[in-house]
Specification:
The chain has 9 helices and 29 strands. Strand 2 and strand 3 form a beta hairpin. Helix content is 20%, strand content 26%. The protein starts with 5 loop residues before the first strand and ends in a 14-residue tail after the last strand. The chain is globular, with a radius of gyration of 23 Å.
């Protein structure tokens, strides 16, 4: 494929209300995942691994945690002005209002497109778990002569109510775009299946600018790509569907192709995290050919110690991040973030324990999510008594216990006087 000037715009401003309380103090893209990562790292790694180095990250709600992560993990040098990852808070350039929808978020920053003058604009969400070589989608867009391209995933019709869906002709040109309907059009020749939008788009930049201005001029619009812009664009312009199952990421095992998770609920977030545990996980974090990048912090290697009673610290079928200490404690089928300290006789099963948590001696945790900086007292029982869990913590509809973390002070360098 010939080189293409592509500007990346990542939508990272969502409230993530269905992920509460994990989103009580942070936006959804900033929620930790996989021990040492954040959800936003997937979108950003896909862009960088695809050679797209000019990226704006549009932020809005509860963005402090996300902004700190972008500063620590995703800063380029100033040597090349065309290579940057820049967070863009809501600036209210078009009036005193927050972003009204996904297309309004782009419209309020339309000057970024006009100043960059790219050939194409890649508009991607920041809150899904997946790998994707975006170059292949760009090549498909060019080959089709498209003005816009929507990444889609074949999905059972029974699950389609949560997504936008598309109807295509024999050439995969989109003839209808439907937002979250219970009976979407099926894939031709594949009954029971439909094409769900992944919320990832590429557009010819001049077309995108024109359509954004047209949508902004309509007061009745919700100013959203799925609800308003795309349903109208497909009637007038060549907008094509790109089948995500055709995407081939270097180094990826064939059985993992097509992995994509919308981690918008506590249940889906938990299930995606549990996908990481096995020797051949559904989502492979160890792929040198397609590295998942994140912030690196100074932390000692993890330690597995034998306590005074002769109990061995052990972890089975689990992810254990750097800096953890397992002192005569047992961890199984779980994901531990950085610097988790698990004391003597504690047992953690089928759980997610985030960075800098402390689990006291003899505590037992089962099927739970423990947010950052939480302290679990000695002898505590989490995930064993529904009534007690509901009284003390947040309990999801599927019985997953979520224990809120605590805030920590931000260190400030003292001034010598």
């Amino acid at each position: 494929m010939q080189n293409a000037r592509v500007l990346g715009l990542i939508l990272a401003g969502g409230k993530g209300t269905r992920l509460f309380p994990l989103t009580k103090e942070r936006t959804k893209p900033a929620v930790p995942f996989g021990g040492k990562y954040r959800i936003v790292d997937f979108a950003l790694s896909n862009f960088i691994n695809s050679g797209i180095y000019s990226v704006y990250v549009l932020t809005q709600f509860k963005s402090q945690s996300l902004l700190q992560h972008l500063r620590n993990a995703w800063q380029f040098s100033d040597l090349l002005t065309s290579q940057f990852i820049i967070p863009v808070p809501a600036q209210m350039r078009k009036g005193e209002k927050w972003y009204q929808g996904t297309s309004d978020a782009i419209y309020q920053n339309i000057h970024l497109i006009e100043l960059s003058q790219p050939e194409m604009v890649a508009v991607f969400g920041a809150d899904h778990i997946y790998y994707m070589d975006i170059r292949q989608m760009i090549g498909y867009h060019r080959d089709k002569g498209a003005k816009g391209t929507v990444a889609v995933l074949p999905t059972p019709v029974s699950e389609a109510g949560r997504f936008g869906t598309v109807e295509v002709d024999s050439d995969w040109r989109i003839v209808r775009f439907l937002e979250k309907v219970s009976s979407p059009p099926e894939i031709p020749g594949r009954p029971g299946w439909c094409l769900a939008s992944m919320g990832n788009y590429t557009f010819a930049s001049d077309v995108l600018v024109s359509e954004l201005r047209r949508d902004a001029a309509r007061p009745e619009s919700d100013h959203d790509f799925g609800k308003n812009m795309l349903p109208e664009m497909v009637e007038e312009l060549p907008i094509y569907a790109y089948d995500y199952l055709t995407n081939r990421v270097p180094g990826e095992r064939p059985e993992n192709r097509g992995y994509w998770r919308d981690v918008g609920t506590i249940e889906s977030y938990y299930e995606a995290s549990m996908d990481l545990r096995s020797i051949r996980p559904n989502l492979e974090l160890h792929n040198p050919s397609w590295p998942l990048r994140t912030a690196e912090y100074p932390a000692a290697p993890s330690r597995y110690c034998t306590d005074e009673a002769g109990r061995h610290g052990e972890a089975v079928d689990s992810i254990v991040s750097e800096g953890c200490v397992l002192n005569g404690s047992s961890v199984s089928r779980s994901v531990l973030g950085r610097s988790v300290h698990v004391e003597s006789g504690a047992v953690i099963e089928d759980s997610i324990v985030m960075t800098r948590c402390y689990v006291g001696a003899g505590a037992k945790i089962r099927r739970a999510i423990i947010d950052k900086n939480a302290r679990i007292p000695p002898g505590a029982r989490i995930g064993y008594d529904e009534a007690s869990d509901r009284e003390r913590h947040h309990l999801s509809s599927d019985g997953i216990v979520v224990v809120e973390g605590s805030r920590t002070a931000i260190p400030i360098t003292p001034v010598a006087i």
